[in-house]
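We examine the record.

___
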Amino acid sequence: MAIRDVSRSMEEQVDNSPGQRAGDGGTRLRYIDALRGLAALLVLWLHVANYYRTLSPETAAHVRWLNDFVSAIDIGRIGVVVFFLISGFVIPFSIRPERGAPVASFAIRRVFRIFPAYWLSLPLAAYVFYWMAGAAFGPGEFLANVTLLQPLFGAPYAEGVYWTLVVELGFYALCIGLLLAKSLYSARRIALLSAALAAIHLFGIFMIWIGKPALTVGEAFWALNLSVMLWGTLYRLDTRDDRLATCAFWGLGILYSLVLPVAAMLVGKPLPSYTVSYALAFFVFIAGTRFVRIETRLGDWLGRISYSIYLFHPIVFQPIYWWLMAQPADSAWRTQHLAVYLGLNVALTLVVASLVFRFVERPMIRLGHRLATRYEARASRSRTVARPRPDISAEAAAG
């Protein structure tokens, strides 16, 4: 369809989750980097504003547009949903089914992409959000966080933003399942699955709204987020020859960007306001991939370090916030304009994210790519050896 960019080959796909880099041998989609950096900064903005507005009455007086408006539309959620759409847009195309052991090589790259920086952030997050405040966060909870499967163990997240990484892992598993079912690049099957998950979400939220829950809020949002990510995949696939997939693509896009927020406003009852932030995320994503493609060095850089921005911004702002709260309420430390605190945290987070990317992310990404490439080559050789060779002796004799 005209709205999607389907001109790049599979070798040019970006191998990504929040903050991910281009796959081996791939060309970076620079406008995707810019979107990723923007999404990370939106999340940072909301979290810092929500915390630092409580420093003093003077600070609160300065937060009208820096906190009240961005909290009303939940720009943090907008950033997260943009991340989800980007993952749908790039992750399925980073799996190379034509190569040896595509599932294993994909898993190797993902592990080395996601976990090293995450493991570095984990003890720091546990310290600043639990141990520094004297809150309980024991060895069992810490080990559950190491696996990034906290919901399975009933453990709290050491850092609130970690929940999105669990959703990312769920999407990776879904992509692998679809690949094995020979459905990952079928526009029709992707469309039907996205629509089915959307229907599950709507049913779950409706039942919760009327007071007869059939699903938990978490389960309903799992369905929503996976549906959104699959829509990101559909956005990239060519559906021109499949009327059903085309209708599903446009129908779901209109549902998320228009119908749900309008319905939430018209009903006049306490429907969740998430519909507005999801709709705005769709507009940001479509604008950034189609109409206003940002391709600058700054956008490239922010995209490269966006995963560390996302992981480490709470670890930066929380200790600063605790220190400021320990100062007298009328001191100059606590009575600055909120923009000052926001700028300070952005600057420090960018420094930390740059260091983490340089010394942890980039080396581990390269190591993961090397290991995956070797595994692919070994699997390809094994497959070649296992394939029976034709008996040419009879042919030679006949010749």
Q: What stands out?
A: Residues 10-384 form one domain. The radius of gyration is 23 Å.
